[in-house]
Amino acid sequence: MPSDPLRAIRLQVEGGQYSLTPDYQRAVLKRIDDMITGVDSADQAIEHRGRPDAPAAARYTANLFYISGHGWRRFLADSAESVRVGIAIGLALRSSLTSALEQLAPMIDVTRTKISRQGDGVTLTCAVCDGDAVTFSVSRTGPEAPEQMVVSSLSPVTVFRTIAGPRMADLLALMDGGDAAEVVKYLTVTQPAGCDACCPTCGGVYCKTHTAIEAQWTGSWHEATYATCPLGHEREIE
Q1: What is the per-residue pLDDT across 76-130, written as a single tens digit (0 to 9) for each?
Q2: Spatial contact of 135 and 121, defined as CB atoms under 8 Å apart
Q3: Short-list 107, 210, 195, CA closest to 151
Q4: Most C-beta atoms within 10 A of its C-beta, which of 76, 81, 138, 161?
Q5: What are the strands, taking DSSP E only, across 21-177?
Q6: Single residue among 107, 140, 170 that ends a domain in this structure
Q7: Radius of gyration of the chain (CA)
Q8: Which among 74, 107, 140 is the end of a domain?
């Protein structure tokens, strides 16, 4: 089974090969079980009755990157032994996901993203599911205020950003042209945060369902937000 490397690590943890406290051991075993379920579910979605379900598979892989991400690694940074088991689990997860990711990659057409108009708003669609990846709307902050474009963000911290003036006009013209790739390129070149829904490695634009999003905090201090696409490419988005 694809999840066999994770199952092997689980046996080692359960057998006491790693010197973990009982609480740590229980938490690690629970997280490994979640990973095994996710890997098996992704594999089943890809093999689904001979008709692969790419949106489901991508949802499972994105969740796997989330539960194995920065928060999990920070939790395991408590001791040298917990770090050691974390590294072993990470390697096992990557090995378990190799086949699924190799099969999923050609199912995702990164050129599939389109410009969609819904009422007064505009969206860039997800390369996996055609859902909303980025939304755009024009509004004013007051009756006499100039128009501005409100652009959604993947971040749970900075949930939207605004564009005004000539750049907003340029962006509206690109939208009227109907070329989604040009809109993404313009955002990437002109905006400090770029187009955070776009993975620069594979070029796919993904919605929140198909992206692992992690905001990292130290107390009330926001350190960074990371996004990982369903193929495992991580980037810092703020």
Answers
A1: 998 999 999 999 999 999 999 999 999 999 999 999 999 999 888 899 999 999 9
A2: yes
A3: 195
A4: 76
A5: 115-118, 121-125, 132-139, 148-152, 160-164
A6: 107
A7: 20
A8: 107
Which structure tokens are listed for 201?
């490695």
Rounded-to-integer distance, Cα 59 and Cα 32, Å: 18
Q: Which amino acid is at 151?
A: V
Do 210 and 112 touch, CB atoms closer than 8 A? Answer: no
Instruction: For residue 68, count other CB atoms closer than 10 A to its CB.
Output: 22
pLDDT 10s digits, 47-81: 876 789 999 999 999 999 999 999 999 999 989 99
CA dist 161 and 188 (Å) reads 13
DSSP 157-213: SS-EEEEEHHHHHHHHHHHHHT-HHHHHHHHHHHSTT--TTB-TTT--B--GGGSEE
Q: Is the domain of 216 the same as that of 167? A: yes
Kindly state whether residues 28 and 91 are assigned to the same domain: yes
3-state secondary structure of 52: coil
Number of domains in the chain: 2
Domain that holds residue 182: 110-236
Is 98 in the same domain as 120?
A: no
**DSSP SS3 for 8:** helix
